[in-house]
Design goal:
This is Methyltransferase type 11 domain-containing protein. By secondary structure, the protein is an alpha/beta fold. Helix content is 20%, strand content 21%. Strands 3-2-1-4-5-7-6 form a seven-stranded mixed β-sheet, sandwiched between helices.
Length: 239
């Protein structure tokens, strides 16, 4: 597997407004999450990073919502995403809105989030799609050092591999907003060619038992859930 860690320093934007067409992306993500917020339950929701903090989550059933970041005016907790100051299994849901796109070590962030999430906790990840018009912009030398092309764009399959290793069940997987400069992302083309969407979204849950039944281990004395296996991916277009 291609290593995700990099030594290259990537400056994350302080808000969606600092990205070209950033407000369009934020609105598109919020629309995609509207049906999911009422399904989340528990006591604590973490929104890690400046972009996550600006995602509207007033429809979420979890009332205690905490913005976490290393700096910023709208942060309640100042902390590194690599070292979250929360106890193990103390958080019910976590939002990583383009947090991994500006991370030097996204694996480490996912492991830290997994540490603080309770069993069956919710994880939401949004990212830029490299197989899109934005991804094509990274091939142009003049653009690749500008926002948002400077960000790290991971394919959904790669993100799914990472979640599989941590034993997460993917409940929702989508790509949308094909035309980055259009307020609605080009509704017609986004409906018929969603694979080219500039933004991808994953909604997953942390599982503690294997999600793939293995009859060879059924009835064995040794606990059959002693080690994590790959998560079953159950995609639904609509929740």
């Amino acid at each position: 597997m291609k290593p995700a860690q990099t030594r290259r320093k990537i400056d994350a934007p302080a808000s969606w407004a600092e990205l070209p067409w950033g407000e369009y992306y934020r609105t598109a993500i919020e629309q995609q999450l509207q049906p999911w917020w009422p399904k989340f339950f528990g006591f604590h929701l973490l929104k890690i990073g400046h972009l996550s903090a600006e995602i509207a989550s007033d429809k979420c059933a979890i009332s205690h919502q905490v913005n976490v970041g290393e700096r910023g005016k709208n942060m309640q907790v100042f902390a590194s995403p690599y070292q979250l100051p929360f106890a193990e299994k103390s958080v019910d849901a976590c939002l990583l809105s383009h947090t991994l796109a500006y991370a030097a070590d996204p694996h480490r962030i996912l492991r830290e989030v997994d540490r603080v999430l309770i069993d069956d906790g919710w994880l939401v990840i949004s990212n830029f799609n490299p197989m899109s018009m934005l991804g094509a912009g990274k091939l142009i030398p003049v653009l690749r050092l500008r926002q948002p092309y400077v960000s790290r764009m991971f394919t959904q399959m790669r993100l799914l591999d990472w979640l599989s290793l941590l034993n997460y069940e993917v409940l929702h997987l989508s790509r949308f907003h094909v035309l980055p400069w259009h307020k609605e992302g080009g509704r017609f083309i986004s409906t018929h060619l969603p694979a080219l969407g500039c933004v991808s979204l994953i909604v997953a849950r942390k599982r503690t038992i294997p999600l793939t039944f293995n009859p060879m281990k059924f009835g064995a004395r040794k606990p059959w859930f002693s080690r994590a296996v790959g998560a079953t991916k159950s995609y639904r277009d609509q929740p």
